[in-house]
Amino acid sequence: MKTKVNEISIKYQGNFKISQAPKITSSVSAAELLFVTWNKDQIGLQECFKIMLLNNANRVKGIFEVSTGGITGTLVDLRILFAVVLKSLAVNLIISHNHPSGTLKPSEADKRLTEKIKKAGELLDIKILDHLILTPDGDYFSFADEGIL
């Protein structure tokens, strides 16, 4: 009997020069970029978790939606998150999610997830620069700015 296996192909496709990509210099620049790319029809309805993939110069390689959930939470599978990070060859990462309620205070679950992602990133030499919580009205909370990253 002949053994068969699937072939795995990895592809990263960009449509512009990285020198033209936005450069993240602060939580403000990251939050502004995330907010303009967020689906405005859903930001106030259900939680969504996204990652901003950055190169070593903190230029944005892309933004990826990891999960969409319910009104008060969304599940994040770290294997999927880091599969995308590794596939894109990102070295820095900004994680983000929205709070449809408009509350800026991170929950204990938000803090635990942040720590879990940070530890996994350390094993892979991928730096988590920030975790941003966005609200429907454009406000944000930065874990890095508040010293809890």
UniProtKB/TrEMBL annotation:
Parts of the chain that traverse the membrane: none
Keywords of the record: Hydrolase, Metal-binding, Metalloprotease, Protease, Zinc
Pfam families in the cross-refs: RadC
Keyword Amino-acid biosynthesis (UniProt): no
Keyword Transit peptide: no
Protein name listed in UniProt: RadC family protein
InterPro entries: MPN, RadC_JAB, UPF0758, UPF0758_CS
Domain MPN: 23-149
Lineage: Bacteria, Pseudomonadati, Bacteroidota, Flavobacteriia, Flavobacteriales
